[in-house]
């Protein structure tokens, strides 16, 4: 296949198997399809600079037309890019009812435009947010402070997390000796991996032992969508919560929090 000027495919109950191209300047684009099967496919752009176009594999028309490609299967789509190649890998501007199995991208920028994903099975787009088959464990140093970027001086900052696909479970512990110049903005704690967007984010947060938050009210927390931040609140007798501001905290305290959330 010669993709120097791009290649467009549509499908209506169709099957496209074993298609591929080398040094595709623009993209393979599937603007509309229904109940069709695409793949296996091998798409390569080995160039390392200049003239790479924008996207290697595009599904759907625009961000506002999520129903253009529906009930389709994309199987074993392999994308290769040379180091330094700025082409984006996948662009999914399509419906949630599609299935992507064994779709992978290697090399170039770790870039996937996920306007609407479908069901991801054994996919690896080299972007942690949009993968479904990655399991890992690790540690991070959580930061506590205000939402303006003024952080407490910590004496303890430890966190452990485990990831299974798009689910992260983590426990964080911070202790601080000074709140520094933290201001009248919500108290925040940083996460190990960014959370999902508002429409897809599911979460469970539990506050463990704490001191120095300077409130006698119950304390709750929630993870902010599309960020690596958790924010804290106090709850009144009517079960109405208000932001817990960082400058209300004492110059010394400790906080333990556990969480499970989607990425």
Automatic annotation (TrEMBL):
UniProt name for this protein: Uncharacterized protein
Protein source organism: Sphingomonas cavernae
The organism's place on the tree of life at top rank: Bacteria
């Amino acid at each position: 296949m010669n993709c120097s000027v791009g290649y467009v495919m549509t499908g209506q109950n169709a099957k496209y198997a074993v298609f591929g191209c080398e040094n595709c300047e623009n993209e393979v684009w599937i603007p509309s399809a229904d109940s069709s099967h695409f793949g296996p496919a091998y798409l390569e752009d080995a160039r390392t600079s200049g003239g790479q176009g924008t996207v290697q594999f595009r599904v759907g028309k625009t961000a506002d037309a999520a129903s253009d490609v529906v009930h389709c299967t994309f199987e074993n789509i392999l994308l290769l890019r040379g180091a330094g190649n700025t082409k984006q890998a996948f662009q999914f501007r399509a419906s949630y009812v599609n299935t992507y199995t064994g779709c992978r991208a290697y090399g170039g920028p770790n870039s996937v435009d996920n306007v609407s994903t479908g069901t991801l099975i054994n996919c690896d787009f080299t972007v942690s947010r949009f993968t479904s088959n990655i399991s890992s464990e690790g540690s991070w140093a959580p930061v506590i402070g205000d939402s303006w970027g003024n952080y407490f001086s910590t004496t303890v900052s430890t966190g452990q997390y485990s990831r299974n696909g798009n689910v992260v479970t983590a426990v964080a512990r911070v202790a601080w000796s000074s709140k520094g110049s933290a201001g009248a903005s919500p108290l925040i704690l940083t996460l190990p991996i960014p959370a999902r967007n508002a429409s897809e984010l599911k979460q469970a947060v539990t506050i463990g032992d704490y001191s120095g938050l300077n409130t006698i009210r119950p304390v709750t927390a929630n993870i902010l969508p599309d960020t690596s931040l958790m924010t804290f609140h106090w709850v009144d007798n009517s079960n109405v919560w208000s932001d817990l501001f960082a400058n209300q905290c004492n110059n010394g305290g400790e906080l333990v929090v556990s969480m499970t959330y989607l990425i």
